[in-house]
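[job 4471] stage=fold_predict status=RUNNING
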Amino acid sequence: MFSIKFDTKNNLLTIEMRSNFDEQQGDVLCSQIEKELTKSKKGFIVLSDLSKVDFLNDAVSKYIQKMMKICNDHGVSKIYRVVPSKTKDVGLNIMSIFHYSKNVKIYTFESLEEARFYVNINTSITLKDKIITIIKILRIKSAALTRHSNFRYFVLVIGFLLLLIMRQIFHAFGVSLGYLYITLIALAGFWFEIPGGVIAAAISSIIFVVEVNFFSSWIARDVVFKSMFLRFAIYFISGIVLGQQSRVEKRLKKKLEFLAAYDELTGFLNYRFTVELMKKELERSKRYKKNLTIAIIDIDHFKTINDTYGHLVGNDALITFSKVIKSNLREMDIAGRYGGDEFILIFPESTSEQGLASLNRIKKEIANTKIMSKFLINEKSLTLTFSAGLSVEAGDKNTVNDLINSADKALYKAKQEGRDKIILDLLSIASKVKLIDKGL
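[job 4471] inference complete, writing structure tokens
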């Protein structure tokens, strides 16, 4: 899966490749690049996002090489590519040697945002915008630098060395310098969690023991010597507390990022993100004349399950049902939770027949699946059926709301006709919605 766009104003070709790239898509990709580059002038720029390509197997490498050759033949001058994996970057560098001329400049970035900022500098934006863009690049660079472990090690080592030098200059065990040691311990705990805080505390303690024994004439030596164990306790408590706090914050951040996009119970995308992806798939289907089918699924009599057996049993039913859905979708298909016991499935580059085939697989498996729950009292297991409505993108004027509304109408008709049915609602611009009962 991919998307291509050529900006004639800035002579810029943007290529975004996604996972599940196969040979058929490779042929379409290369032909589409050839078509778009007919609008280009010599010296055009390429922005290539390869961050979502899972791996560079022989099939993927073959078409990336072909893509490189096409761009080179049309007179590319600069390549801005997003390749987070260093392993991929090495492979692409080797390919570049053979497929790009020596005059082509290649720049590699870890994020698409950063790459776009660099592209903006080379396009026709105002001086003010270029200055703003440079500031944004510096912000990204500095933020990326602070995330590198080597940079953090360097800061801590330099910090300890500076404190040693300061004590040598002042010949004193001043209280303020002790606070600076605690600052370094806290920083190590924040960056490297509890292990980092404990190691920094141990280093500070060792330095202190060495200094009080070697420099007995320093000011305040006797006072701090008497409170040595209290100092050690403060060092280690600071490192452990800050390290634990850092660990909790990092885990909370990851959980919040997950919850922002996914439904915690089923692991599916939430409604907002599902609709966003549907918009992108709809735009792509219109641009490249591809099929797009969506489905809305509703578990039959789910309210009865909740009322009879309790919501905890209902949750277990949803979890099992979502697992069955996942096991019967392609990697490129998208599953989202619509709300309650309803789900949205997006089938990119799929006809109505392919969408129906996927739903029939789910239907067959769920019919043979027993819903187990430790909260079931009078029953050992339950079985589920579902109703579904499908909608097929059939015109350039359709919107996401049109697709959802169309599938919703088909779902409603399936429920009216007794449930446990799959009905296709074919969108048509020239006429009203036409309902086709597939007899399922």
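[job 4471] summary: The CA atoms of residues 423 and 437 lie 5 Å apart.
[job 4471] exit 0
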